[in-house]
Amino acid sequence: MTDKAAARKSAFAARKAAFAAGQGQAAELLADVLAAHAGKRLAGYMAMRTEIDPTAAMAAHAGPVGVPVILGPGQALKFREWSPGCTMVPGEFGAAIPAEGAWIEPEVLIVPLLSFDARGYRLGYGGGFYDRTLEGLRARGPVLALGFAFDAQEVDEVPTEPTDQRLDAIVTESGIRRF
């Protein structure tokens, strides 16, 4: 088993336990962070399984909001405009996506993850979608990548590769950490 595969197995278990305990004040803290970015294009995500849920903060954002659409393996994500109550359909891997809407290029991304470390690295599901997306967006201009997770998802060190993109900050139920 590779380092990342072993780390993912452990991270899924830690996140599942944290999810069962509830997300506490995490959504309010995320909304507070996003308030400083009012008017900017935001990309969030639709929580699946035991992911911490950012939709309350996304709904409160003063500006356009999108959610990721997977176009295919090895490609960067695109983001379709989302609003509370819009018609959603199943996308790749079961993630809900808006049935229709404009494409937006985010300036701020809320990034899901399995685990994170104090250096700002995250462990995702292994498809590289967010790493490719962040690399492309950052090549075109400034982008803020905000991890959103439970405290229990922090690990000593996430196994990394040269293509892994660091987060700029992470929001958990206990606060905000900037990297």
From TrEMBL:
Domain of life: Bacteria
Reactions performed catalytically: (6S)-5-formyl-5,6,7,8-tetrahydrofolate + ATP = (6R)-5,10-methenyltetrahydrofolate + ADP + phosphate
One GO-annotated biological process of the protein: folic acid-containing compound biosynthetic process
UniProt cross-references to Pfam families, sorted A to Z: 5-FTHF_cyc-lig
Residues reported to bind ATP: K4, A5, A6, A7, R8, R122, L123, G124, Y125, G126, G127, G128, F129, Y130
GO terms assigned for molecular function: 5-formyltetrahydrofolate cyclo-ligase activity; ATP binding; metal ion binding
Cofactor: Mg(2+)
Keywords: ATP-binding, Ligase, Magnesium, Metal-binding, Nucleotide-binding
Enzyme Commission identifier(s): 6.3.3.2
Family: Belongs to the 5-formyltetrahydrofolate cyclo-ligase family.
Protein name as catalogued: 5-formyltetrahydrofolate cyclo-ligase
